[in-house]
Amino acid sequence: xxxxxxxxxxxxxxxxxxxxxxxxxxxxxxxxxxxxxxxxxxxxxxxxxxxxxxxxxxxxxxxxxxxxxxxxxxxxxxxxxxxxxxxxxxxxxxxxxxxxxxxxxxxxxxxxxxxxxxxxxxxxxxxxxxxxxxxxxxxxxxxxxxxxxxxxxxxxxxxxxxxxxxxxxxxxxxxxxxxxxxxxxxxxxxxxxxxxxxxxxxxxxxxxxxxxxxxxxxxxxxxxxxxxxxxxxxxxxxxxxxxxxxxxxxxxxxxxxxxxxxxxxxxxxxxxxxxxxxxxxxxxxxx
Length: 287
Fold this sequence. Notes:
The protein is mostly helical. The protein is built from 14 helices and no strands. The mean pLDDT is 94.
């Protein structure tokens, strides 16, 4: 798929996105934005989005019962990231997209999950990347990108049989905020799943574990820290991390535009080397 006209122009993709309709063209906008404009940021933002959902006791208790985070945290993380990437990379109604959705629905169908919990997780996929990119993206998001994310995941939610997803961007954001206000409370399972995830993050970097853990916790807001029962590091740790991310954004702004997409073809995948070569979406997830 051709994504922009002038590959030497850093802002050609932005102009392309601004020419598209966020309702009709939301799949194309999502792919250009996440695979060409902000691939690194989308991955970090979705890591944070998933981490945020573990602040909800009803969600963390289910994850604790499955044992996936205790025994296979990297695989569980990769399965989720790749299944979502399949939907963006190929489209939710493509053959691979439909196969990925069948896997997602099969995994969720094993458990009695409250509709509002499913709806909340869906909302984090919309708004956490938007929030991250507003703070740390190399350029401001366009209105089309924000709305396209909403329409994209609303369509995904319909295919997952998630009920009562609001019809507008602002209404869904209001639901997300109200849900967090009510449901983010401490529980022992929050702490357990949060710690497993923190240990996973620490395994990715060569820095001392204690330093990486402090840096990760410093990126959480006060409500999340309380819901996990973590100890907040000194404020300067968070300030240093946010400054580093903003400096990175300034550097990326001056890099040439990406000419190949980065979604399912990330060579750094840990659980499925070489993905998607030799793999199908049906190979993902717990057996």
